[in-house]
Amino acid sequence: MAINHNKNNQTQRPPHPHMRLGKRPKVKDVRGTIKRIWSYMKKDKGLFILVLFLVLLSSAFALLGPFLLGVTVDKLIEEFNTSALLVMLSILVGIYILHATTEWTQNFIMIDVAQRTVFAMRKKLFSHLQMLPMAFFQKRQHGELMSRLTNDMENVSRTLNTSVIQVATSLLTITGTIIVMLWLSPLLTVLTLAIVPIMFGGLKWITNRTGVYFKEQQKNLGDVNSYIEETLSGHKIIKTFSQENRVIDEFDEKNKALRDSGYWAQTYSGFIPKLMNMLNNVSFTIIVGVGGILAINDIVSIGVIVTFTTYSRQFTRPLNDLANQFNVILSAVAGAERVFNIMDEEKETDEGRKEEAIKSIKGEVTFKGVSFAYEEAQDTLLDVSFRASPGETVALVGPTGAGKTTIISLLSRFYDAQSGEILIDGKNIKSITRDSLRAQMGVVLQDSFLFETTVRENIRYGNLHASDLEVEKAAIAANAHDFISKLPNGYDTILYSDGRGISHGQRQLISIARAMLANPALLILDEATSSIDTITEMKINEALAKLMEGRTSFVIAHRLNTIQRADLILVLKEGELIEQGTHDELLTRNGFYADLFHTQQSKQNVL
Q1: Which regions are flagged for Basic residues bias (predicted)?
Q2: CB 550 within 8 A of CB 580
């Protein structure tokens, strides 16, 4: 899409969302979402009831102040008694102090309740994310998920901190004000309430529109966050291919969408205080005019007029607060709904009641007629069968997209095959709990991931109960101890997740040490020596030889000269297992594997 770089573009009114969004989204389940939020709040039900009691007290004090003010004015007009006036003023000061104290206390307690609630929700969301299957994360952008953990949760937090108290206070104040006003003067009360239908008509027109735009604003905010996360993670690729201007333009489009939705959400919600102020002034004028006539004719006192003018503002202000909080609550509900949508995603759980945890395995792996597809009508594996004996090294070779990684994913139960069986030591892996199965596996990937913590803790991730001495022994076995010792703080040196500070080969050695510490029965290697210098490759190969000793190992191989000693080579093409055997056997057959091997050899000879 072409980008308009007109300098005046930023000051132009954004297109109306009805023009840009097309069909309006369905109305959210406000009641259901609020009920789910309450399910987290009710753990602090006692504190919440105390807050409501304090709200009741503060509302009573707020109603008592104007009433006593009117009484004071009447007493002052009827009998100018200085001592009585001082007494009344002292009482008024005490009422206002009590009102401020109860308001401060209720806010203090509600903040505590709100933070506990959001803490529990955020904990549940993060925990649930860890339990979701791999397929979920492949369909979601990381930045969008981060937005739900941060922006949406913070939106809920802000709303709980303020909106609950304001809504309760507004409802009590409105109810109490109407009762006292009716008692003082039914006529002036009717005139004051005459503006309410107009007020609610305007509010209905506004709020019918704001919910749609606040939801769109939250969605666009998630898109922006996701794009920022993606571009920051891939900044090297962006710079390598000189795509800075393209990503700037794409971000500009997403940023404009966020600006437009935010513009209309805030524009419509901004109508509310303006409408309230206008109607408040109209009400004030009516009360003063009609009240003056009634006072001249001795129907009401001056004090009643003073009380009514105060109550009229005190009546419309909570209506204004309710209207404003309605928009805030809608925005928070939109955020909470996005959070609960993630919580409603189905966990990666063991399906039946017969799954059992395994403590150890020998390492015999059998695939029987296994077929799998990530998406319907697009098969990734077709009727794959093979057997690996305990302690054997199995190499997976084939073009990109042949199904090598899929076999590993099925073996790890990141996915379950649609047909066929996968057996470990004769047991169908679907009868084994995922946690205990994966505890028997060690993985060394081509691009090793390191956590932003010390070298020691990165290695200890393979076995969280390992001692410092065991960590160092694993590093020595992996040929990583020498370079670790030369780091600024040795094993206590902080590493970065993107690998800054150490080489790619050193990261691989740390990953191998981590796998050694885990002491797995099954080992998975994804071409761990690719893009490594010769000396480091020798160290890695030596460490891998120690790691693979006595373990059933699956090696995803891209360079065929690294797997010539494998006990079994599986040759995959377009999801089918077309050849299997040893290196020498496959070369003798002069098939697809032989062609691949000779092609790679000829290229190396040319180089």
Answers
A1: 15-24
A2: no
